[in-house]
Structure formats: C-alpha cells, structure tokens
Fold:
Amino acid sequence: MQPLTLDDLHTLDEYERRRPEFRRRIIALKRPRRVVVGEYVTLLFENRETVLSQVMEMIRIERIVEPAARQAELDAYNSIIPGDNELSVTIFIAAPGGLGNIREMLDRLVGLNEHFSLHVNGEIIRGVFEPAQYREDRISAVQYVKFPLTEAQKRQLLRDDADVRVVIDHPNFSHETQLSAETLASLRADLREEVS
Structure:
C-alpha cells in the first residue's frame, strides 16, 4: 500500500463536514478487522484507510493546519500502513480490573515480541514489532506489528479454505484466535488491491 501524503488529508473545515459519514464508513471497515485474542488483547488489522482515520482525528483534535506539522503526523503514522506482501496489526493490551492494573499486566507480558505469530495453514509467521514500543524490561499497552509474507504465504492466505490464526504463546498469556471469514475477506481485499 502506498503511504499517505499531504494530498490525502482534508482541511479541518472539510473534515468536520465529512466526519460523520467518514466515521460511519471507518467504523464499518474496522469491525471485521478487530480481533480479540484472550481476555485482554485486542488487535486491529490496519490498512491505508484505518491509518488515514487516525491521522485525521489527530489533526482535528490538535487543530493542525501547518503543512510541516501535518507532514510530521504522516511521518509518524505511515509506518503503520502495511507494505506490499505484508499485514499490519496494532495490538491493544488491557488489564484485569482496568487502568489501575495496567502496569502489572504489561510487566507480565515483557517478551511478547517473541511470542506473537500468525499461523496460515499451520505455517508460522512471526510478528515483527516496532522497536520503539518495547524494551527488554518493559512494553507499552499499544504495539505496532508487521507480518511480512512470502509470495507462497500470501497465496495460502488468499485461499478460501485457509485456516488463519493469531497465536500468543507467552508463558504468562497463551491464547489463539482463528480469524473469521469476515476478517479474512477484509484482509484479502487489501492483499488483492496490491496487484490491481
């Protein structure tokens, strides 16, 4: 997928006018792309449109109008957009009992970057975490992960009968979720878009 450019962004006035319809469309787009893994982890499979919505909301909240400042937002968010033959996921980690317990939960999940994978028809594809979001002794509640796909893995994922699962095999948190047909259809649309 192509990165976002300044030409993709709306003016603040235009975005305010279009925001209700834009948000309805994005909510519908995100619904099948949101995947729950266990009780405390939610994933969002990202694409160009989901990232555009995040950028526009930040621009709206912070009232960013200067081109250089808008470009800085794009620079920060473009890394989330999947490249060719790639899936991109944002991981959101919650905590039992709410925000007061988040630090304890995150401390329990140190090393998550080595225990998060996508399984496509039994083949394991390890997630590549953005290094700024974790350290050896600490992770953040939001993680950005890419799944680079070989051509063969992409072909497998595009098959209608593909068994695709997100697996977390961390010693303190072990869960897996099979992706629904609706989620796979949305991801396949992204992957097919790359070749059109």
